Amino acid sequence: MTAHATPGAGNSLRGWYRHRNPLRVMVNYAVILVCRVSPSLRLKRWLLRRLGVTVGERVAWGLESTPDVFWPDLITVEDDAVIGYDATLLCHEFLVDEYRTGTVVVGEGAMVGAGAIVLPGVRVGEGARVAANSLVTEDVPPGATVAGVPAEVVSHEDDGDRQTA
């Protein structure tokens, strides 16, 4: 995660247009709106790649899922991953005195459940699972299942045997 100081009075969101081109953000927003309502996974993958999202093969983006509108180019979703209904992948945080950016990586075969939010700087490991409505603030180990607000490991798969944490 990278912190960026924001000079002057007011919070960091107040001057967002100094950090990202407003026209680019509007185009990103419009394309993401189309992706949110389109049932076509092929169209979603194609459009998101045009925005700079790194999208692997056979990735499934659920309806209403939302990649970061300001920094979509910081998102990587690897092969066979699933981003569930209404899940959000954020690569930025506007705070009072600074804003932060960080990559979000969803590993191969991982799943982000419906309504889950993944914060900047987080990697969801290969084959990991994020339960519905969870808030992911830290990396998720490969093969782990996390749940809650904030998300915590609730189980882990090792060598095909399901182990409870």
- How far apart are the first and last residues' alpha carbons, in Å? 27 Å
Mean pLDDT: 93
Task: State the strand order across the main sheet.
Answer: 3-6-11-14-16-17-18
- Give the overall shape: globular
Number of strands: 18
Q: Please, how many helices? A: 2
Helix-residue proportion: 10-25%
Low-confidence stretches: 161-165
- SSE string, helix = H, strand = E? EHHEEEEEEEEEEEEEEEEE
Largest sheet: 7 strands, mixed
Compute the CA-based radius of gyration: 16 Å
Describe this structure in words.
There is one protein chain. It is globular, with a radius of gyration of 16 Å. The chain is of the alpha/beta class and 165 residues long. The C terminus is likely disordered. The strands form four sheets. Strands 3-6-11-14-16-17-18 form a seven-stranded mixed sheet. Helix content is 16%, strand content 32%. It is built from two helices and 18 strands.
Give me some keywords for this one.
single chain, 165 residues, alpha/beta, 7-stranded mixed sheet, 4-stranded parallel sheet, 2 helices, disordered C terminus
Question: Summarize this, please?
Answer:
The chain is α/β, with parallel strands linked by helices. The protein has two helices and 18 strands. The longest helix has 16 residues, at 22-37.
Mind sketching the topology for me?
Elements: E1 2-5, H1 22-37, H2 41-50, E2 54-55, E3 60-61, E4 66-67, E5 75-77, E6 82-83, E7 88-89, E8 92-94, E9 98-101, E10 104-106, E11 111-112, E12 117-118, E13 123-124, E14 129-130, E15 135-136, E16 144-147, E17 152-158, E18 161-164
